[in-house]
Amino acid sequence: MGNEGKIVIVGGVPGVGKTTVINNALEHTKAEGMKITTIIFGTVMMEIASELFNVQDRDNLRKLPENKQKLIQKEAGLRIAERSWGRMSIVDTHFTIKTKTGVYLQGIPSWVSNALKPKLLVLIETNPEDISKRRSYDDSRLRDKENIYHLKEHQEVNRTSAITICQKTGALLVIIKNKQGHADKAGENLFKYLKSL
Ligand code: AP5
């Protein structure tokens, strides 16, 4: 069973500004009367993780053992497919998750991509120095401190992951730069691609 709506998956390393860029794009879609639902994958994972494992903080999800993360991820993919059925939806998520042990976990493995059947993947990127700065001034979250080398590596791994998803699903891929102080421009760019679907 697959999703018959138009699913757009937006990913990028934590703190790159995915949610900010999506919110900027949604201002344009609203003005044009487009109906788009946004679903935050991490929020759906939190619902499941609090039911099954009493997890209280979204920043603790990536610290769970990898097998538990995969179990929650699979259920989240199914719930999101159900909630987005027949609608145009943006799924705010991650192409890879760096876990507590330092390994990369695929964010959209086949059990998620088969359920969601995305039409478009959007990878949000910027330079590692700016990501590091954004993480440090965002006190609302328990963000990981990663050095520039590791942030660069994570962005490279995300590109490979995104390509793999495209190969499996036939989804298109676009990379949007979220330059420092220009989240509005990145939002306009995202809007342009949403409109073209
Ligand atoms: P999630 O809730 O997605 O957390 P996150 O990774 O921290 O993502 P955020 O949404 O908080 O960061 P963001 O990149 O959207 O940045 P933001 O716009 O806030 O995920 C929670 C957890 O769920 C994950 O850690 C993982 O464990 C799990 N999860 C999710 N999907 C999964 C999956 N598929 N499989 C397995 N696990 C999964 O911006 C950050 C800051 O930067 C803000 O202060 C903002 O104002 C600022 N900013 C943004 N843009 C700019 C700009 N252009 N210039 C200057 N400042 C900017």
Task: Please outline the helices and strands.
Elements: E1 6-11, H1 18-31, E2 37-40, H2 41-53, H3 66-83, E3 88-92, E4 96-98, E5 104-106, H4 110-116, E6 120-125, H5 128-137, H6 148-169, E7 172-177, H7 183-195
Parallel strand pairs: 1-3, 1-6, 2-3, 6-7
Antiparallel strand pairs: 4-5
Helix pairs in contact: 1-7, 2-3, 3-4, 5-6
The structure holds BIS(adenosine)-5'-pentaphosphate.
BIS(adenosine)-5'-pentaphosphate (AP5) is lined by residues 12, 14-20, 40-42, 45, 58, 61-62, 69, 73, 92-94, 97, 107-108, 134, 138, 141, 178, 180-183.
Structure description:
This protein has 197 residues and is α/β, with parallel strands linked by helices. The chain contains seven helices and seven strands. It has one domain: P-loop containing nucleotide triphosphate hydrolases (Rossmann fold, 3-Layer(aba) Sandwich). It has a five-stranded parallel beta sheet, sandwiched between helices. It has a two-stranded antiparallel sheet with strand order 4-5. A hairpin with a 5-residue loop joins strand 4 (96-98) and strand 5. The mean pLDDT is 94. The site of BIS(adenosine)-5'-pentaphosphate has 31 residues, from helix 1, helix 2 and helix 3.
